[in-house]
């Protein structure tokens, strides 16, 4: 795999990313409604028309059908191809940044999971247990795998750091949320946020948990400020999950530059 030329490597990741993005669309659409992601097969939400194989090709089918169901002509949201293109772009970016390392698989699985979580959180203000709980377990399992080949590990961190990271991720936000509720009587963050950050700790370790809170506070704070300045009122509910996800993802790919900037502050 180390001998694959970079353009082929990236093109392959792009195709994989499109197909995964197509699957993430199903996850994003069905998980918040507690529907199975395996059954029924892809169909038009309006008329129930089962998608034929050629109607289920990422991005291309949507373009070929002009964004409409072939049966009832109901328009199909541009969100579908957008998620497929975004997934492909992020997949290629992760591959380009990390290269053909053994923990590339872990990096991609983590990226896809937090992307689905973020989109669902933005749309439905929900960080689904159906993704975060298996995500925590999978991260811990990957950290165990690194015991076999410590030199080129399949995970970013070993099991000790992963377990500490999981506890630190859940516990730190729980403390913040409990203190906030005690001071104000209001609920700021939900349990889904605790579990998302526990998942970050399971995959990337406790150091990344701390930096993720820092980055999410800055980016989330900046967006909240823009909301206030734009006069949208003080009573908007802003999901925190996407900012945690973004912070963790940036730390996964560019830890040194971010820590350097942080230390210089
Ligand atoms: Zn239809």
From TrEMBL:
Domain Prepilin peptidase A24 N-terminal: from-to ranges: 15-97
Subcellular location: Cell inner membrane; Cell membrane
Pfam families the UniProt entry points to: A24_N_bact, Peptidase_A24
Segments passing through the bilayer: 6-29, 104-122, 163-182, 203-228, 240-263
GO biological process: methylation; signal peptide processing
GO CC term (a single one): plasma membrane
Protein name from the UniProt record: Prepilin leader peptidase/N-methyltransferase
Organism, scientific name: Acidithiobacillus ferridurans
Lineage, highest ranks first: Bacteria, Pseudomonadati, Pseudomonadota, Acidithiobacillia, Acidithiobacillales
């Amino acid at each position: 795999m180390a001998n694959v030329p970079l353009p082929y490597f990236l093109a392959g990741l792009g195709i994989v990313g499109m197909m995964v993005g197509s699957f993430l669309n199903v996850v994003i659409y069905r998980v918040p409604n507690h529907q199975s992601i395996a059954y029924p097969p892809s169909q038009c939400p309006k008329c129930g028309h089962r998608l034929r194989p050629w109607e289920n090709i990422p991005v291309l089918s949507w373009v070929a059908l002009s964004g409409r169901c072939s049966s009832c002509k109901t328009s199909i949201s541009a969100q579908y191809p957008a998620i497929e293109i975004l997934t492909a772009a992020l997949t290629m970016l992760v591959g380009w940044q990390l290269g053909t390392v053994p923990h590339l698989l872990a990096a991609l699985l983590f990226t896809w999971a937090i992307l689905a979580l973020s989109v669902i959180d933005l749309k439905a203000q929900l960080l689904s247990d159906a993704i975060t709980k298996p995500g925590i377990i999978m991260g811990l399992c990957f950290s165990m795998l690194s015991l076999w080949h410590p030199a080129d590990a399949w995970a970013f961190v070993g099991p000790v750091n992963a377990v500490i990271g999981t506890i630190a991720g859940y516990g730190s936000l729980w403390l913040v949320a409990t203190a906030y509720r005690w001071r104000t009587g209001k609920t700021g963050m939900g349990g889904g946020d605790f579990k998302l950050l526990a998942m970050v700790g399971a995959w990337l370790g406790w150091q990344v948990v701390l930096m993720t809170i820092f980055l999410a506070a800055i980016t989330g704070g900046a967006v909240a400020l823009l909301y206030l300045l734009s006069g949208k009122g003080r009573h908007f509910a802003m999901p925190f999950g996407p900012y945690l996800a973004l912070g963790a993802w940036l730390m996964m790919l560019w830890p040194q530059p971010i820590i350097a900037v942080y230390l210089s502050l």
